[in-house]
Write a structure and sequence with these properties.
The protein is an alpha+beta fold. Helix content is 25%, strand content 31%. It has one domain: 2-Layer Sandwich (60s Ribosomal Protein L30, Chain: A), CATH 3.30.1330.40. The protein contains 2 helices and 8 strands, in the order βββββαβαββ.
């Protein structure tokens, strides 16, 4: 279970699809940085920032599902963009917002030197019911 901190008296406001903070109880799953790896082709796919973001978030959904969680349980994300510009940020942000809807985790977006791809996302999710089969 998680509680979103969406406003703080006399504090900053969220200016994108993220929460200022998230209060959550464990257990947690820590998802490693996912890349735009396509299970269908067995390769990293380059293409647009939007297309790469879709592949990354679909891979995150797979890992979360195997762990007994979903995107709705994510409490924190770090997004890495190889070229952090207003355009690449906007393109990633539009896809990201569509995946998380109203269940917005805390988030940081960082410009980074990535090798062979343009988008990587790591996250932490609170597992609602422990998955004992892991």
């Amino acid at each position: 279970m998680k509680t979103l901190v969406s406003s703080v008296p006399d504090g900053p406001k969220a200016i994108g699809p993220y929460s200022l903070g998230v209060v959550a109880g464990g257990p947690f799953v820590f998802v490693s940085g996912m890349t735009p790896f396509s299970p269908a082709t067995g390769k990293i796919e380059r293409g647009s920032i939007a297309g790469q973001t879709v592949l990354v978030l679909e891979n995150i959904k797979r890992v979360l599902g195997a762990s007994g969680a979903s995107l709705a349980d994510v409490v924190s994300c770090r997004v890495y963009l190889s070229s952090l510009t207003p355009e690449t940020f906007r393109e990633m942000n539009e896809v990201y917002a569509g995946y998380f809807g109203d269940s917005l985790p805390a988030r940081a977006t960082i410009g980074a030197q990535l090798l062979g791809f343009d988008v990587e996302i790591e996250c932490v999710a609170a597992i609602p019911t422990p998955n004992t089969s892991l």
